[in-house]
Amino acid sequence: MTAQPSPLPSAPAVTRLGLGLAALGRPAYINLGHDADLGADKSVEALRDNAFEVLDTAWAAGIRYFDAARSYGLAEVFLGDWLAARGHAARVGSKWGYTYVADWQADADTHEVKSHDLATVQRQWPETLAALGRQPDLYLIHSATLETGVLDNPEVLRYLAELTAGGVRVGLSTSGPQQAATIQRALAMRVDGRNPLSAVQATWNLLEPSAGAALEQAHAAGWTVVVKEALANGKLTQRGLSGAGDVPPALARAAQQAGVTPDAVALAAALAQPWADVVLSGASTPAQLQDNLAALHVQPDLGELFKLKQDPEAYWKTRSGLSWN
Hints:
Residues 48-299 form the NADP-dependent oxidoreductase domain. The protein is α/β, with parallel strands linked by helices. The chain has one domain (17-320): Alpha-Beta Barrel (TIM Barrel). It is built from twelve helices and ten strands. The strands form two sheets. The protein has an eight-stranded parallel beta barrel, surrounded by six helices. Strands 4-5 form a two-stranded antiparallel ribbon. The chain is globular and about 55 Å long.
């Protein structure tokens, strides 16, 4: 009898927030102010200590879903070591399709290389198992797009179908202005009459909510839906759109009225979407995570906040220009 993936519940009733490790496992990332968050010492040991501190803060707050990827530097290793050291039983997601190539150099010309072929997933799946010390609950194609052809690659899809048969909930993450089309293509996919995919992680935030309808369709189809980049890589935080403290006026007003920081309001907006099973915090420090956690107690006026949305093409063009720091 074929084993079926178990449902991914939201973390204990205290929170639907998860923690993403994109900014914790490597010395450079595209979040605004990331360099200052990590401090001067960006050695492996220093980042490991910081990751453990953030993970401990998350666990104490009730967070039970943690998201990593092969390309997040040593994020999988840090997470696997932390789980083993603490003895925690958590839900874990990871991703394949990008390879980290910066060799721990924050000023590297290239930080990650994308490849969605069979050789990559065959290499990275055992690497993920070794780094985590266990099988992930979710295993996603990293930033799948229609252009890469991964959703039309029969060899890759059959390999993923085998993982699904082994009890892994397999899916995709998406990026770019065509997220909705990619998700809809994934929902319609079949391998030997069945869809091996049943999870999606997508960018959704107050500036770029265009994938919302497709994510609602995925949720209705029984897929696990995870929201990433709810803070738009720092644009919806106190660092603001310019990186110098300007936040959109509507967001600033909502935060002031609620007595919280802007990031909490932006995360609360994502948590208010009924199709979102997990919303990821991408905090780099315990203090940032504590600010994020206030989202659990905020009920924002979505009507005003939805006026912040931008044209998807413009949003993603700006995002592609963010510098690694």
